[in-house]
Amino acid sequence: MPGITHNPPPPAVDPDLLAAFQDVATATISDCLDRMPVLLGLRAFHRHGRLLGTAFTVQVRAGDNLAIHQALEQARRGDVIVVDGGGDTSRALVGDVMKAIAESRGVAGFVVDGAVRDTDAFAESDFPCYARAAIPRGPFKTGPGATNLPVSIGGWTVNPGDVVVGDADGVVTFPPALAPGLIEAVHAQVARENEVLAQIRAGRYDGRYAREAKG
After folding, report:
1. Measured at the alpha carbon of residue 67, what is the angle toward residues 125 and 86, in degrees to the nearest 5?
2. Which residues form the signal peptide (predicted)?
């Protein structure tokens, strides 16, 4: 449609690769990637539930959600709609109707660098939604916009097809190519932390964890 540029979708990500991160904390992922892949300033609006999927990126002009509506028509099951709204919070880009559309199409969740509305609907649901703010004012639907291109969310670049993980602490993303090595690093980090916690409970902690920590 006029005003919206649609780029080809990225290759699908192996479901087994995604499943490996099902129970991994975003804090651990961030630690194992030099504490870098964090989407700053976003908070969860949903009741509960982890976010896990692949990025279907959308870029919109401030306060306009036409490209998001079109993205919902194109997204694959398990995609996360990641919206670069420029951090503008003057109009909501996503609300209850778009949530219902997304759920009906198997979308894994929303990540919005902008505002949302109908927050009671999200708060009563486990459908993941992360955004910068809430406001009742609705959006324009005239464009322009674009889909499946690199976008900047909270100071971090998200590429189409990146793995997206969200929990109560926030959202992190990383390229699928990093996943095999990353999951090994994550398991090692979890083992170290569990060992330290066991030492603390047993009264044997000697401070080595802090001395050996990176950064």
Report:
1. 80
2. none
Residue 55 lies in a domain: yes
* Residue 166, domain member (yes or no): yes
Spatial distance between the Cα atoms of 113 and 123, rounded to a whole number of angstroms? 18
Q: How many domains does the chain have?
A: 1
Q: Label residue 144 exposed, middle or buried (CB < 10 Å: 0-12, 13-18, 19+).
A: middle
Q: What is the pLDDT of residues 15-62, one digit of tens each?
A: 999 999 999 999 999 999 988 888 999 999 999 989 999 999 999 999
Beta strands at 51-60 and 145-147: parallel, antiparallel or unpaired: antiparallel
- The parent domain of residue 165 ranges over 4-175
Residues 165, 51 contacting (CB under 8 angstroms):
yes
Is the alpha carbon torsion for 118, 119, 125, 129 positive or negative? positive
CATH code for the domain in which residue 123 is found: 3.50.30.40
> pLDDT class for 211, splitting at 50, 70, 90?
low
State the pTM of this model: 0.94
- Beta strand segments in 16-167, E: 43-44, 51-60, 79-84, 92-94, 109-116, 129-134, 145-147, 151-153, 156-158, 163-167
- Whether 210 maps to a domain, the answer reads no
In a domain, 14, yes or no: yes
d(CA 112, CA 110): 6
The SS3 assignment for 134 reads strand
Provide the pairing of β-strand 43-44 with 129-134: antiparallel
- Phi, psi (deg, nearest 5) at residue 21: -105, 10
